[in-house]
Amino acid sequence: MLVTGSSGRPAPSLRTALTARAATRTARELMPVSAVPDPEVARTLVADLRDAAATATDLVLDIMRLDPGTEDRARNTVAAGEIVVVDRLGWAGANARMFAGLLPEEARGGALGTVQAALARGAGTVTGAELGAALAFLGPRVLGQFDPFGAGRGADAGGAGRGESGAGRLLLVAPNVLEHERALAAKPRDFRLWVALHERTHQVQFAAAPWLRETLRSHTSALLAAGPDLDPARLDAVITLMSVLEGHADVVMDAVPRRTLPSGRRLRKAFDARRSDTSSGIARLLGSLLGLEGKLAQYTQGAEFVRAVVRERGHVGLRPLWDEPSCLPTAEELADPEQWLRRVPGSGA
């Protein structure tokens, strides 16, 4: 049982050190079991999700209009990544390993001395039980996720590794996709492509901007280790970064031609209405763990920022976003895109 402290989040205990094993075990105990589909339905679903992810690559790159060199690098990096179709527990295990790897060494599971060291410095580090509970809550709601820190092709059977190639992994949660498309009465082909498009866009973002991965790793590690003693500047940076990435993914999805995704507009309307139930990723988990769900789940401003830039300069005008960290918008510029447009020069087509 978790005890809530005055900060509004579970208080540190002897289980302060986060371990992937503890988180996965807790998730397994708490997460609702998904219905088991007919074997033929399951085989078709897995094949369709893989095909949708492959199809999404060209669609995303056509819309993003990266410069030729960046596009070639991004395409090669994406091709080196791994598409993993998982069940809920597989998704939970992958995220448990990812978050355990993001914590500083002194806050990870290990010898008793390591735990005592973390407690002695008053760290509010996330526990395995906390992470497991968050994974159990989000597990039935997540449709897919791009893990920028996961190993690409050639990883061991357990997906171990810190993903130093930069390719990352695309995680598609098959039972949740099936459950949600049935609940929405969506066309399976369209819905599966819709899900794949969002996550593939994130993969292309990180492939186009290799520095993104280390930037996100640095911010996330610091916030996980800080616990209640959050760094406001770093928190603002994470919120702004995730807002841009999520907003951009939404805009790219909406730009897919209607002939390619006939029910795209209907899916957008339904998806937005259910956004609190279906959004996922590092930001959602981080927000749940730190009691900041509202702040880290508000991506509407990111989409508005991206749309404002596209109206002014087209999708090619977003190229500078992937150049270097200084080209990302500040929190003020996110709320007022005109400031960013004045500060960051446009990119030629």
UniProtKB/TrEMBL annotation:
<dbReference type="InterPro" id="IPR042271">
    <property type="entry name" value="Zinicin_2_N"/>
</dbReference>
<keyword id="KW-0645">Protease</keyword>
<dbReference type="GO" id="GO:0008237">
    <property type="term" value="F:metallopeptidase activity"/>
</dbReference>
<dbReference type="Pfam" id="PF10103">
    <property type="entry name" value="Zincin_2"/>
</dbReference>
<keyword id="KW-0482">Metalloprotease</keyword>
<keyword id="KW-0378">Hydrolase</keyword>
<protein>
    <submittedName>
        <fullName>Zinc-dependent metalloprotease</fullName>
    </submittedName>
</protein>
<dbReference type="InterPro" id="IPR018766">
    <property type="entry name" value="Zinicin_2"/>
</dbReference>
